[in-house]
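May I ask for a single protein's sequence together with how it folds?
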Amino acid sequence: MDKKLSLKLNGGSHVLGIVWGFDPFIELVMGDPWMATHGNNNIGMVVTPGNSIVLEALEEI
């Protein structure tokens, strides 16, 4: 995949990163993510359940 995404999560968090993969339930695995909500912290790797995200593509998918 290797596409840049901006995710808004339930609870108000905002994560920026690169999609490494996903499954049929739209659970995303992101590499090099940044938690923009909490001072731009690099948080390693993120696995996000699909029912908790609002998705905005930063480049064409």
The chain has one domain: 3-57. The mean pLDDT is 76. The radius of gyration is 10 Å.
